[in-house]
Amino acid sequence: MKADDERYREWKGGYRSYDLVKEASIALGIVLAIAVVLTILFSSPDEKSSTVQSWARSDPVDFVTTATRELDGSSASGRYGPPYNHASGSVQHAWFLHPQRWLGVSHPVNNPEDFVLAPLRAITGQPGLQSAVGTYESASANQQTAWTSAYEKGLMKAKVAAGNSISVPAGKYGPLPAMMTSLLSFAQGGGLDGALLASRQFYQTDYTKPLLFMADSAGGVALANRAMAEHLLGTQWGMMNETGSYPGQVWLWLYTFWYQVKPFQGHNADLLVLLVMGALSLALVLIPFIPGVRDIPQWIPVHRIIWRDHYRASTG
Amino acid sequence: MAAIFNLSHHPSYAHWHFFQMSVPNVIVIVVMLVVFAIAILVRLPGAER
Amino acid sequence: MSTTSWTARVRERAVAALPPDKLLPDKQPSYVTSGIYIFGVLSLASLVVIIASGSILALKGPAWWHFTGVGHFFNSIHLWSVELFFFFMVIHLWGKYWMAAWRGGRARVWITGAVTFLIAIPCAFTGYLSQQNFDSQWISTQAKDAINASGIGAFFNVLNFGQMYSYHVFLLPALVVAIVIAHILLVRKHGVVPPFEPRELKAKVAATEPPADAESRS
Questions:
Q1: Which one of A2, A66, A254, C174 is most buried, counting C-beta atoms within 10 A?
Q2: Domain contains A38
Q3: Neighbors of chain A by Cβ distance (3+ pairs < 8 Å)
Q4: Closest B-chain CA to C34
């Protein structure tokens, strides 16, 4: 095989003249022309971002439900695990591989503090609110859980009330109604978007907190419902799609394919798909060394079409 | 800058068993296959027979 | 010729591997006649348009394209040139596969090409995250689960716009360009892969080959 391969090392036959720089220049002109034509015909998509404000305004009940779940840690990110916290709700493993655990909590998020208590404490001129926050913080863990559980049950029957607030059936909610009324109003006014962003320093480029908060939306109001309408969910082969009618990421077809297939639909789907695609990607790179795969081009001779002039000239 | 064809609306989707692909993506894939077929059949300009 | 000067050694190795007429040849093998051979240079041209349009977007910062027609124009050029890059690159890959272009010591040419494709994917991914619109919000909150599951999320936070923008505008394009340069230099060094020799042709060549003691050029 090696000796056979050696005969292809250098071409000892004829050459013809060829202008490499001219060809590259023409190619550049062609690609630029096609890109400009496609731009003029189709432009590019730009769907405006969701905000915590737009979410709180469009579905105040969902917003307050999510905020309550952040308080008791039962939201998706509250139960997530590394890199945000020490829970285990979204921790994946494959056989003996536990990379998510091994790499640990590198981006700590304190859900009750970051999403509810700290923003509320920053609101000035409302002594009643600060008193409610103090009552909540000084209560025992069991008492806090009793309040949040009761409130979450009540919220299932909540309705939107005057001024885009909410009205919840009476119940033993402790200081929560006062806290959530203020948080809702703060969010609807746009203050919470900024408060979630600017925490450690003035300049911010890290959107971890506002994005986790919106992704935690109990009914998928902030992000998931929009995504479903645009066919961007995993079950809709969304990884390949783009908003609107634009072509998307066609090259991700095999990546998203696995998610539609049985063994890859459980809790550890993401890690398993990554491992499979990692192996296949390595195989792609190493095709020259894989017997069988590297021989297919000889068995299925597409090359006879590509080099038909050469073969005709050689045997003629 | 307004485009000549507005692609902001929802596309149609092609379904086959559990395969689901937007028509624009199907078009891209089909065009790639057609272009590949044409490419291996045609000759470069200046290439002699 | 100095054997101790690093500069001289590097120069001599470079010139030996790629003399000027190999680096910028003005002739190509007679078997290069098929249209499939243009897809490498089309992929390269697409990459040039991507970088040029991306540079203009970078000049004005990430928010510019949302608020001006000119900005949106260059964003569209950038998007379509990315689609063209993957379009041409995949067709180029198909062609090279069916030609078994790794033959004759050209494994590294195939490897650098495949690695370019694989690195272009996260480069495009960080681009989607840099858009600062709903697409970025959805893609980041979805992708985080796979990235976190692999442990990569510990040092690559897809929800951190600043980090993703840095990867997209500098780190990953630099890596793509470096590997593409290696790929092109390897093509120039090894030459375009010769055709398969079918059995009838092999027999004919064997029948007309000079005797075993004749010298062969390296």
A1: A66
A2: no
A3: B, C
A4: B43
